[in-house]
Every structure is written in structure tokens, then in C-alpha cells.
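cache lookup: miss for this entity combination. No prior model stored, computing from scratch. Input as submitted by user K.M.:
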Amino acid sequence: MRIDTIASWWEGFAPYVPGFAAASGLVLVLSVLAIVVSWICGLVAALAKTSRFSALRRASEFYIWFIRGTPTLIQIFIIYFGLPQMGLRLSPFVAGVIALGVNGGAYVAEIVRAGLSAIPKGQMESAQALGMSRWHMMSRIILPQVFRVILPPVTNEAITMVKNTSLLSTITVVELTLYSQTIIATTFRPFEFYIATALIYLVMTSLISQAAGHLERHYARSL
Amino acid sequence: MAGEPLIRIRDLRKRFGAHEVLKGVSLDVHAGEVVSVIGASGSGKSTFLRCVNVLERPNGGTMDFEGFHFDYEEGARRQPTAAQLRDLRARIGMVFQSYNLWPHLTVLENVVEAPIRVKGERPAEAREKAEALLARIGLAEKRHAYPSKLSGGQQQRVAIVRALAMQPRLMLFDEVTSALDPELVGEVLGLMANLASEGMTMLLVTHEIGFAREVSNRVIFFDQGVIAEDGSPGDVLRQPSSERLKQFLRRVLHEDAYHAAPAAPLLGGRT
């Protein structure tokens, strides 16, 4: 490939670099917020599923069943297009964060539940036998151990979340995917711009994998 | 023994589904007593121990311990509350068969966790006391190690120290040497013998008949969910009155292992 070809490609890209940077930043913000929401939903659902009250258990089971059994895109549409009919009008950004967070929560709940059941019963009994409250036992003894067990699946969830933000292009959130579509609409260069977009997602998801790998090695010191 | 017992248990009953594991157990333990509980597996001895600090909630009977009065009868008003249970357990130490140290915390962190966060001790003070205890069992230099780096015997001794750091009035030991390699049993029993000689009140479920004989001042034989024999080690272990205890002792002391050997060769020996 000749140098001037590359140069002309770059010339084609250069004007859009600030736009790509802004759209990537939005993907990060959306992902972080949605992951936070998914953790809140997931922990609540996991605790509800192990609750003494059957109504809570049922509600949690329904939530997980519904979310895992329906397309994420439909869930996004229900919240963004459906809720206004019920009188709740959300901005595309807020609707997107809620939809992705609630979606991810169902998967987090299952991960947390599996993690909890991986901790031997004796760990709880020794905490109880020392007079610890349930909250103390969970926060200091059980959940820190659960966290290590579930780190790999949780990493996958975070990566899925980053990729799922691309679905929000359908509800007019100008994140990476919608941004590249608007450029392609004027430049008619889908190949270069979709490849560039893919590479940006790839960098973000790879960074998450890297960070998780570091954490795992850090925890391995006590094994 | 004279005076008020430290713990008084009356007619304690526990069932799992339709299976009645404890069928009315009554026991007084006085301060300073070391009581060994022996019996075949399934006799209810471990369940009994776990009922004392209510890891298993009894289905009937009463218990008195240091001002607590619990009534486990169905519908009784004196069922223990969650706060009372925490208070009770903070005063009763328990050591388990499988050590149950917390793998994500160092030895020192394992020991100071409950004193700081349950009893509200100042961290510096709790750490100082924990280090003194660890030094006494010869594990001071392991205080920053994680449990996985310790041998089974060391882990179990740390588990004992973790319970002692709460300054309990009573210690429960649930078959604490059963999971250990034979050469590591001695160090744990040694620590328990020290504890007994210092006057700790101890209730221990054990298969170590020698230890029960040498260290405890009372032996209880559990059979089919009730206390079948109760007395000094000399009486219970040397002159067992019931046929079932005699059988049990023969089994655990392996005395008839040779007699039970099959007459026919197992390896298909030549005739």
C-alpha cells in the first residue's frame, strides 16, 4: 500500500477524531452507569431470591426469567417508547442507562447467586458463632469471597455491557455506533468507519479484560 | 459440683423433618469443667453441641446461660431474638472440624475481626492481644500469612485462638481433630489440654478417647439422642455400665479389629 493512500485515508478520518472521542466517552459513561445500575438490581434480585418471603422470591424469579428470555432491544424499546404511554417520559440517555442496567441486573443476579452457593457453609457458621450480625457476615466475610469467585463472569458482563451500548443507537443516543452511522451517511465509506468503530470497542473491552486480569492476580496471593 | 452451673440445659429436643435427633437432653456444666461428649456417629452429639450456641435451633426444652433464659418450646414467648443470639454467641467460642478460617483474611485479621467489630474493641488493643495469643501458640511469625499457607494443625490452632480472642466463658469443640493428618493431631490436643489446665470451661465432641480420659473431668456418652452415661472418665471409660458403651469403646479403640478380620483370604491366596 502506498504512503499517499494511507495519507489520504487519514485525511478522510482526521475531521472526525474529536467526534469519535466524544462518542467513545459517552460509551464509557453509559457503560459505567449501566453497570452500577445492574449491580444494584442484581444484588437486590439475588438477595430476594434467597429471601424467606416467597413473594420476593417469586418477583426475583420472574424478573430474571423475563429479562433473560426476551431480546435486549425489545427491553430498551419498552422503556423508551413504551413507558411514555404510561406517562413516564425519559430522555434517551436515562432510558438507555435504565434499560441496560435492568437487563444486566438479571445476569448479575444469577452470577451472584452462583457465587454465594460456592462459599462453604462453614464460612458463615464460623462468622455466626462469633456473634456477627447477618450484615457484618455478608459484607466482611462472605461477599469479599464471593467477589473473587465471580470476577471472571462479572468481567464478561462488563464487556457485554460496553458492547450493548451500541443498541442505544436505535433510541437516538449519539454513542459510537450512531455517530459512525451519521458519518457514513455523508461520506459513503462504511468499510473504513465501521472497522474504526469496531477497533475502538475492541480497545475498551480489552482494557476491561486487562484490568480484571490484574485484579485476579492480586487476589491469587492469598490462595 | 456445688453452686450455680454456668450452663443449664433441660429436656432439649431437636428434629430434622420427621427424624428426632435429640430426644430430651438435660445437662448442667459448671465453670471450669471439661466435658467430653462421645458417641457413635448419628447419636446426636454434634447436633447437641450446635444447639448450645443455637447454630441449630432446638424444637423444645430450655437453656440458661449467664442471665439468658431461652425457652424453645413451640409458641413459647422466650424464644431467643437475633440480638440475644449474637450476644450469646459472642460469649461462647466454637471450633469446627473444618477450621473455617476465612481465606481472604490474614491470620491476624481472622483473629481481630470479631473482637473489633462485634465486641467493639479498639483495633490497636485487639491486635496487641491477638499477637500475644498467637505468640503463645508459636505462630507469631505467621500473623501476616493467609490461612492457605498454614498446615491443618496450624489452621486449627488459629481457629482456637480466634475463638479465644473473644474471651468466651465457654468453648465448644466439634470434632476438631477429625480432619487433621494423624501427625498434626497432637499439637491441637496439646493446646486444648493447656486451655483446660487454665480453667477454661469446655464442652467437646471427640473421638479421641485418650484425650477424653486424660484431660476431661467428665465424660458423657450419647446414644440414640439421649445421654446414656455421664460421669468421671474413670467411671465411664474404664467401667462402662451399658453394653452399648462397651461396644462403642471396643470399636473406637480398635480392640476387635483383628477378630473381625475375615477368615477367607481377600487377595485370592492359594489353597
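stored under new cache key. The beta strands of chain B are 7-16, 19-29, 34-38, 60-65, 68-71, 92-95, 170-174, 201-205, 218-223, 226-231.
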